[in-house]
């Protein structure tokens, strides 16, 4: 699919969030979307998924089946995991059993009878992923899917994404934590100043060594990641 000269703002006369975005996303692409907090990553993902229409520009070639997992899965719904996923399967016109392989891969089996409001953040995130995956989407849009996931699933998810792309799906992921960046062939897209650039083309990279007190390291790491920087920890 392709986004061509897209501009978007949420309301008339409110500031433009995206001003000139052109992006090619051929089948089999995994695109990692990065950028500062508030840069417009979630907005871009909603436009890609078709949840919002651009004010200007065109979107063409979007695959028919789209899976979208929002940054925060809305848990304020009075259903069990099982009935919610069965409902979502029906919405997409597939049998409820279509969710089973994903329930297994994301280790959600023991939570099927739990009600959505009672789920932990990570488990809710997994339900959000299963509902996005169960109808074998040709376009999968994941907004910060890794936040709150337990380590085992967090490590397994990039492989799962690569498998889907290998089967021809287009996958667009916003990813503060840079979990997918090591997948072979991943396209890095950076959102800044209302537009997107290929993250690998914007002037090269500098490795900066920062020494920080241990009790401040977590805070600094969080801030740097929120600004879109890659952070690697080394022990002294
Ligand atoms: N539904 C909305 N209505 C109005 N403004 C919105 C809406 N959603 C987002 N915005 C505004 O659009 C801008 C971009 O927000 P967006 O959530 O797309 O950024 P982001 O890069 O995903 O941020 P973060 O990393 O914090 O999730 C922000 O100024 C935000 O306040």
Structural class: alpha/beta
Alpha carbon gap, first and last residue: 47 Å
Low-confidence stretches: none
- Distinct small-molecule ligands in the complex: adenosine-5'-triphosphate
Order of helices and strands: EEEHEEHHHEHEEEH
**Strand arrangement across the biggest beta sheet:** 5-6-7-3-8-9
Strand composition percent: 15-25%
The outline comes out as globular
The count of helical stretches stands at 6
Q: From the 3D coordinates, which CATH architecture would you assign? A: 3-Layer(aba) Sandwich
Protein name: ABC-type multidrug transport system ATPase subunit
GO molecular function, one term: ATP hydrolysis activity
Domain ABC transporter: 1-218
InterPro entries: AAA+_ATPase, ABC_transporter-like_ATP-bd, ABC_Transporter_VariousFunc, P-loop_NTPase
Brief summary:
Residues 1-218 form the ABC transporter domain. The protein is an alpha/beta fold and 236 residues long. It has 6 helices and 9 strands.
Description:
This protein has helices spanning 41-49, 81-91, 100-105, 121-133, 151-166, 214-226; strands at residues 2-8, 18-24, 30-34, 56-60, 66-69, 139-143, 170-174, 187-192, 195-198. The mean pLDDT is 91. The chain has one domain: P-loop containing nucleotide triphosphate hydrolases (Rossmann fold, 3-Layer(aba) Sandwich). It is α/β, with parallel strands linked by helices and 236 residues long. A hairpin with a 2-residue loop joins strand 8 (187-192) and strand 9 (195-198). The protein has a six-stranded mixed β-sheet with strand order 5-6-7-3-8-9, with helices on both faces. Strands 2-1-4 form a three-stranded antiparallel β-sheet, with helices on one face. The longest helix is centred in the last third of the chain and has 16 residues, at 151-166. Adenosine-5'-triphosphate is lined by residues 10, 17, 35, 37-43. Residues 1-218 form the ABC transporter domain. Keywords: ATP-binding, Nucleotide-binding, Transport. GO terms for molecular function: ATP binding; ATP hydrolysis activity. InterPro entries: AAA+_ATPase, ABC_transporter-like_ATP-bd, ABC_Transporter_VariousFunc, P-loop_NTPase. This is ABC-type multidrug transport system ATPase subunit.
